[in-house]
Design goal:
The protein is elongated. Helices cover about 85% and strands about 0% of the residues. The protein has one domain. It has two helices and no strands. Helix 1 packs antiparallel against helix 2. The N and C termini lie close together (about 10 Å). The mean pLDDT is about 85.
Amino acid sequence: MNKLLFSGLVLLGVGILILISYGIYQLAGSDLPPITRIALVLIVIGLGLALIYVIRDRLRAIKEEGI
């Protein structure tokens, strides 16, 4: 895999983790009802899993193409 692509994906992942961590921190300090908190956390987890799947699929496609 190209080092530049790998570096970009790592930076993207770190940035997303920072934003998610900050969101969880803000959510923990808010006075939202528990059902809303649970729903938001599940949405973030679902989006994260979907993003991981797409990145892994794309990396496999790149590896198979030999780019």
